[in-house]
Amino acid sequence: MASDIVAWFEFLLNPTLLESHLNQTNPEPSAIGLIIQFIYNSIKRTEGNNEVETVDVSTQESNKKKNALSVLALKTAAHLNWNLEIFEQKLPLHMQDALLIALLHETLEELSSPTTHGTLDTGPLLPYQLFSVALYHRYALRALVQAKLPAKPIKVSNVP
Questions:
Q1: Each residue of 19-77: pLDDT tens digit?
Q2: Tens digit of pLDDT for each residue in 96-115?
Q3: Going along the chain, which residue ranges are E strands?
Q4: Nearest-angstrom CA–CA distance, 19 and 58
Q5: Cβ atoms within 10 A of the Cβ of 32, count?
Q6: Contact 23, 30 (CB under 8 A)
Q7: Which residue of 4, 57, 99, 127 is 20 to 30 Å from 152, comparing CA positions?
Q8: What is the DSSP letter of 51?
């Protein structure tokens, strides 16, 4: 039924809706569908703003929406137990990256850039921060390996 389908923005309006929706047997949209919608709409909002950044109410509201959408995407990914295999199969690569970068931003704040992780001291990190760093780098290695694997060979017919 069309009335059972929940639009992505409804999850912003009702904080308890996401968990109840994901706990349904066959939610529509699915968890992956929601992650795609949340990330797409958070990216669309930031890329759509090509003007010079000024700190005003509309920019602050846009940042609040972007952060809220990122948190919803992260909660949905947590519902899937951060299964990288599911992400690889069902999420485009740029959305996988956006999702895991959002996780780093939420957990590490100023150390969230993967370029700084080469010299990152993991000793003082809390367990959830260590998890986000390890998960991001597992994803990065898996993506690199997948990119280097040969694609399915194309059949070439020998026509004389």
A1: 999 998 889 899 999 999 999 998 875 555 554 444 456 677 778 888 999 999 999 99
A2: 999 999 999 999 877 777 76
A3: none
A4: 29
A5: 17
A6: no
A7: 99
A8: S
